[in-house]
Amino acid sequence: MLDIKNLHVKLEEEDKQILKGVNLSVESGKVHAIMGPNGSGKSTLSYVLSGRDGYEVTEGEAHLNDTDLLDSEPEERAAAGLFLAFQYPVEIPGVGNMTFLRTALNAQRKARGEEEISAGDFLKLVRGKAKSLKIDADMLKRPVNVGFSGGEKKRNEILQMAILEPKMCILDETDSGLDVDAMRLVAEGVNALRDEGRSFLVITHYQRLLDHIKPDVVHIMADGRIIETGGPELALEVEKNGYADLLAKHGISEVMA
Amino acid sequence: MSAVEKMTPAETRLARVSLPDGFGPQRRAALERLNAMGLPGRRDEYWRWTNPTDFIAPDPVPAAPFSDDEPEIFGEIDRLKIVFRDGVFDAEASDELAMSGVEILRLADAPDVNWASSLYGTLEANGQDPVKRPFAALNTASATDGVLIRVTGAAEKPVSLIYTHESETSDPILHHLVKLEEGAEITVLENGPAGARFNKLMEVDVAKGAKFHHIRVQGRDHERRAVTSIFTRVAEEGLFKSFTLTSNGVLTRNECVIDIVGDDANAHVAGAALGDGKTGKFHHDDTVFITHGAERGESRQVFKKVLKNGAEGIFQGKILVKPGAQKTDGYQISQSLLLDENSQFLAKPELEIYADDVQCSHGSTTGAIDETALFYLRSRGVPEEEATALLVLSFVADAIEEIEEERFRDAILTRLEGWLARHRG
């Protein structure tokens, strides 16, 4: 599904290397988690994969099935099945949530050569998905993310995911700013989307999200690289002991990380 | 050399002013005002950013009428239609000028009615101090047509003024009166380019508890020029609300002069202007002056400009709070969205406050498309141009929100979307 090889990335504005050779393969239907200390490059990885400006890839490649991600516009990556759930979903005043969802869905369908969805079918689709995420009619009517609580914003991200039905979902610290109940709701939304043909890359600081979204593989990222890969037990170990031992083992000073 | 040849364009223009029939004393007084103040020059403070030359010139710069494939903007709305073709009332294209609770007369008929005689030119004359507005005085003196509307109850439907443009050299001057009696309510719609050069003035007298709603769409003619003025007086608990959508046009100057004279009155004036220099020069100027002369008045100015390919936007907005106008709440925001580096927005917000218990705020911003929001939309699969269009709609949303009725908001949004679809890239 997702193949990242030797990815090196630096910031465009300053000469600062953020990713220093990331290798990662996520198979179809699997959930991979990436954990790591602050500044390890986790969010950068998610932005580079989805095509945000401001980063320069100096080496390496990234493919989503047959699509060369690094050579595609953000909208082309989305149409190819990539989805990034933002850590900080963006507010767009004056644009209704429904308009936004429908524009996005139809744009992707058009890019894939499919027919646009009819207004009636779309309404049915959204209502069904929104209900299970406890998103009410008012939230659908309001401008995108405007006046939404932290939990509502994250639920809205999952709603978009449910409607756009991407193949590869990246969740960038989706648990940040959520209380326990909101996290459970979000996790349930994600779990409902788990499917043979869909993969997830869950970026998080904390093990607690992984109690709800059970990963198949856990990676530890530090200093722009993946330094350890293991099963769910790796997350528990980090939760218990912190990153210090792992960093020391790989010769990375904590200050640098 | 004859004397005529030595005259400046402004002198020629003034010499040519003739006073049509009706409202003689008011027209003569206006001409006197005009001659005393003269036509503006670039040194006039309120004309520093907008060149008045084309408004002053004895003859208009010819403007080719624009063939418009869009349906008329208010075509779906149940309304009383009043059509002016190049500034001349078109009875055949108009509805019968009758509606319950509303009296409608034509300026060109020179009606001799008291309410009109005491209003014609009065608010314009009051609005000449402290800032001179020569094109308004010129209008009062020489306007050839217009409607005189007196509202005594709740008008059953909106009055829709439609200005069509057919002659390349038309130079219409229209003057409208709207007098709302106590507790009355009306919506006035305006659309169309009107002529090669359009000078339009509307005096709106809002009595106690009356409500005036105004939604205007200035024509898409690329070559048209327009100088328009609204003068309004708002009495106790009265409401004045005006919204203008401008797309294209070489040169537009919209002045709005609001005088809040009664306690607990509300006045809102808003505008969204879309300019693309690729289809011809675009210069748009909103000049607003709001005077709070009574207690607990609320005023809002919300102006948004979307500019690209060398388009120019101007905003000059003033709030004057007179002594004793306590608990005034004045708000002003002017913002521009520059879609490239060649376009320009100039803003001059002014506050002058002589009362000590008031709340007044103003803000002005100029910016480009928000890159984070653009990326968010694109990451959901929305192509860049479509995402940009959505963000433009997002940017102007506050101004459109000033329109109370949804059916008018929808009409404006449809027109906006049409413009955006035509002006991509």
UniProtKB/TrEMBL annotation, chain A:
Keyword ATP-binding on entry: yes
Annotated ABC transporter domain residues: 2-248
Entries under Pfam families matching the protein: ABC_tran (PF00005)
Gene3D superfamilies: P-loop containing nucleotide triphosphate hydrolases
Source organism, top-level taxon: Bacteria
Signal peptide: none
Keyword terms: ATP-binding, Nucleotide-binding
Entry keyword Nucleotide-binding: yes
PROSITE patterns given in the database record: ABC_TRANSPORTER_1, ABC_TRANSPORTER_2
PANTHER family: ABC TRANSPORTER I FAMILY MEMBER 6, CHLOROPLASTIC
NCBIfam families given in the database record: sufC
Protein family according to the UniProt entry: Belongs to the ABC transporter superfamily. Ycf16 family.
Listed name of the protein: Fe-S cluster assembly ATPase SufC
From TrEMBL, chain B:
Transmembrane segments: none
Protein origin, superkingdom: Bacteria
Domain (SUF system FeS cluster assembly SufBD core) ranges: 173-395
The name this protein goes by in its record: Fe-S cluster assembly protein SufD
NCBIfam families with a match to the protein in the record: sufD
Pfam families named among the record's database cross-references: SUFBD_core
